[in-house]
Sequence to fold (226 residues):
Amino acid sequence: MADKQGAYATKASDTDFRRKWDKEEYAERAKKKDDEERERMQENEERLKQGKKPLKGKKKDLPKPTELMKRRDNDLELDKNLGKTMVVQNPGGRGPGQPGFHCETCNRTYKDSVGYLDHVNGRAHLRALGQTTRIERSTLEQVRAKIAFLRAQTKEASQAKAFDFDQRLAEIRDKELAVRAEKKAAKKAERDKARLELAQDAAAMQVDPDGMLSMMGFAGFGTSKK
Fold:
């Protein structure tokens, strides 16, 4: 009797396509996690004896901040996928394949832009980048240069606005002249049409005045006696 075959020409009892789990590896991970939890519990007991708050989880060894907070060089692009439909590659796991906003530095994913923005501006993210929450104090020369830059930018914007205003006025004026010319042409066409009809009526009166009078209803005023 021939063996049954599946859709991909494999034996029905063949399960090699299934994912294989390394039991020893996962047992080692579980043991490591239990040891870390035991150490955390012991540390929390010591902290409680000292009157300190217990730790909620394992504290990551973040690098010591070596520089002040810096301005971001790239845009976060929070609205780049607005109104788009995306195919989610990793809906049930962790990492950049999940729907939402993923922080590669901290390997965390947030469901909305508000939470993601709070994270990138928070202390933990800045600490992971090696920055503090303090801002560099500007010098007098930097303030003067910034003021001069803003003045020049404002002047350019005002000039562009004035140019746009004059251009807008010219466009409105041209539009009004076009509307007036169109109305004038329509009135002229109506007058020409009325003059043409009047001329045609006058010509018809000269050719057949009796027929024209009868058409107008004036043919029955004569007597019927003979």
User: Anything to note?
Assistant: The two ends are 128 Å apart (CA to CA). The longest helix spans residues 140-207.
